[in-house]
Amino acid sequence: MRNISNKEYLKDFLSNHPDKFLRLNFSEEEIRKFWKTILIRCDNMIGIYTTLLRNCLIPQTDIKESNALVLSKLKNYQIVPQDHQILIANGFFESFKECIINDSQFEQFLWVNDRADLISTMITANLADVNIAKRLCLVYSQSTNSNWLLERFDRELMPKQQLRDDYKQIILHNDITIPNKLKKYFT
Q1: Mean pLDDT score, 30-54
Q2: Same structural domain for residues 25 and 73?
Q3: pTM for the predicted model, two decimal places
Q4: How confident is the model at residue 67 (pLDDT cuts 50, 70, 90)?
Q5: Which of 79, 100, 121 is the last residue of a domain?
Q6: Is the pLDDT of residue 2 over 80?
Q7: What is the DSSP code (8-state) at residue 160?
Q8: Which domain holds residue 181?
Q9: Phi and psi dihedrals of 9, rounded to 5?
Q10: What number of CA atoms fall less than 13 Å from residue 107's CA on the CB side?
Q11: Residue 20 DSSP label
Q12: How many separate helices (H) and strands (E) can be counted in the chain?
């Protein structure tokens, strides 16, 4: 990258000051190279990523790809309301469903354990979704699944009565069988 040759310095600097990204005057090609190679190694990946999205530095045609890349490396997600709105407006929740929930690895409890915070936060921070309800019920009807995710649901989903009621309605209207491990959340 022409403006800053030391990628480690760039990574550390932007992790602490994502708002300074615009001052670096990167070309479109340099921005693409940054989010494909350096962003996923940054400590404040979401803060930097939302700066890129907020300032329209990633072309619309590349947002689905960039969402998938960020989600492939993200393990935890703390909601910052302004950033969350930017992510949702750029299809991040839809990408989450495609990349995380629909991934065959979602059936492997160790993989889910590693992403339990991300999964729980994304599910509880958004509206109830029929595809998520179906996928959770399918996964939790199998013999092995993530208890860590259920621990996160105890903390994050249980207090959200309206969201749980919305999921109950989805499950009822779609005739989805609720596995025993999910009954306390959805019955």
Answers
A1: 93
A2: yes
A3: 0.85
A4: very high
A5: 100
A6: no
A7: -
A8: 102-187
A9: -65, -45
A10: 9
A11: G
A12: 12, 0
- DSSP letter at 14? H
Q: Which of 100, 123, 154 is the last residue of a domain?
A: 100
Token pair 């991040």 in the structure block, residue = 92
pLDDT tens digit sequence for 137-187: 999 999 999 999 999 999 999 999 999 999 999 999 999 999 999 999 998
Q: Which two tokens stand for residue 18?
A: 């994502």
Nearest to 70 by CA among 107, 104, 108, 98: 98
Residue type, position 61, single letter: T
pLDDT in tens, 127-151: 999 999 999 999 999 999 999 999 9
Residues 122 and 88 both lie in one domain: no
Calculated CA dihedral for residues 52, 53, 59, 61, nearest 10 degrees: 130
Same domain, residue pair 35 and 92: yes
Q: What's the Cα-to-Cα distance from 176 to each of 3, 39, 51, rounded to whole Å?
A: 54, 39, 39
Determine what percent of the chain falls in helix, strand and coil, rounding each to the nearest 5.
70, 0, 30
Distance CA 119, CA 130 (A): 16
Identify the DSSP state of 179.
Answer: P
Cβ-Cβ contacts under 8 Å for 97 (sequence gap 6 or more)? 129, 131, 132
User: In whole numbers, what is the pLDDT of the chain averaged over residues?
Assistant: 92
